[in-house]
Design a protein that fits this description.
With 123 residues, the protein is mainly beta. 5% of the residues lie in helices and 50% in strands. The chain has a single domain, classed as Jelly Rolls, CATH 2.60.120.
């Protein structure tokens, strides 16, 4: 067993939109990432994603059954984006986030662009 200090691990991250693996369990990854600005619109065919705000806040923009939505996720809150929902995180200021998702999840889902990280570092 290994105890993980989120604040200490997040201090090791000095870029944005580049998730790092902080832990694994039952085929799921616990990832840490810093957000700033807009991300890519995308969806995941087979995976749900959980976003937990450790510090700061961000907005989740989404399209669901023809409806457009925006939801602010504040420090200490989380949101689960169900598979198939087109979404895009956006942070006005730097935001520290814990992601919980299957190991197979590509950060940009069905899109491949400059934000895509096919291989993630561990911290």
């Amino acid at each position: 067993m290994q105890k993980i200090n989120l604040a200490q691990k997040l201090l090791l991250i000095d870029d944005h939109w580049n998730p790092r693996i902080a832990g694994e369990l039952n085929g799921q990854m616990v990832k840490l990432v810093k957000f700033r600005g807009p991300f890519t619109w995308h969806h995941h065919e087979n995976e749900d994603e959980m976003f937990l705000v450790v510090k700061g806040r961000f907005r989740m923009d989404y399209h669901d059954d023809g409806q457009d939505g925006k939801e602010w996720i504040e420090e200490g809150e989380f949101i689960i984006v169900p598979r198939g929902i087109e979404h895009r995180p956006f942070a006005e200021e730097e935001c520290h986030v814990l992601l919980f998702e299957p190991a197979s999840t590509l950060n940009t889902g069905n899109v491949k662009d400059s934000f895509t990280r096919a291989e993630l570092a561990r911290i």
